[in-house]
Amino acid sequence: MAVAKTARVVGTERMGPDTMVLDLCAAEPLGFVGGQYLILDSRIVLPSGKAVKRAYSFLTSDAEQVHFQLAVKRIPDGLGSAFVHGLETGTDIWFSGPWGKFFPREGASGRTLILATDTGITAALGLLHATRFAQLLPQTLLIWLRASPDYFLPAEFVRTHVPADCGEMRIEAIPAIGHPERIPHARAILRQVMSQGDLAQAFIAGDGIVNQVLLDELAAAGVTVNKDNVESFFNMPKKSA
Ligand SMILES: Cc1cc2nc3c(=O)[nH]c(=O)nc-3n(C[C@H](O)[C@H](O)[C@H](O)COP(=O)(O)OP(=O)(O)OC[C@H]3O[C@@H](n4cnc5c(N)ncnc54)[C@H](O)[C@@H]3O)c2cc1C
Known about the structure:
The protein has helices spanning about 80-85, 120-130, 155-160, 180-195, 210-220, and strands at about 5-15, 20-25, 35-45, 50-55, 65-75, 90-100, 110-115, 140-145, 170-175, 200-205, 230-235. It is an alpha/beta fold. Helix 5 links the parallel strand 10 and strand 11 (about 230-235). Helix 4 packs parallel to helix 5 (about 210-220). The structure holds flavin-adenine dinucleotide (FAD).
């Protein structure tokens, strides 16, 4: 069973209409690797008896294990994100974790792609700041695809949070979630990246439908990938897939 841990909200910053960045101070070191996430327990229980618990990726470097940040987009009618957006400085939160395997294996090297769609940029930033990712940075291309310039975190925030050693970064538009052109668009970008040279590894985060298509595309191109290279935030692939 997951052990409940606590952290105190030590700062909140609203960015745009629906984004909140939380500064948190954990009661004890987290032991996370960049790319992982926690599961926040809102302590709200639905009439069905189901607890409202939601996953949020660590945004900040794993070199610092007590103070950390999360960035949360408010989802219309969503209880978990509404809970986060109602948090104030001085409040304690409960969570479990760290969870997830979205990080490179020890000793990984070579040309690396991180492709994030939508809110998946948090996992991408966490991964880029993983201590074990440092050696991959110079050969890494980060691509963040989002539907509009005011989606979630400002481009300037993302640019300033990408480590200076990162080889290249691109922030580009993609058709909205669910749009029929979204997948062809993401696939075309991946093909263009692969046409410029072999990838030693790739990490894909965000829209689960896009993730699954790109994972299949990478595997078909001979890039060594498995489900650990993917973090889906929504539009989850079916368990059997
Ligand atoms: C591993 C992991 C890491 C995550 N990290 C983050 C993070 O760092 N920041 C963050 O904001 N969210 C993150 N999420 C999503 C988060 O866990 C919740 O799903 C989100 O906050 C919505 O919760 P809710 O209770 O407000 O809405 P719900 O009622 O749970 O959600 C309503 C619907 O919206 C979908 N949804 C969730 N996110 C989006 C989105 N961006 N666009 C469109 N639909 C969406 C849900 O899947 C669901 O179908 C992560 C999810 C996972 C699995």
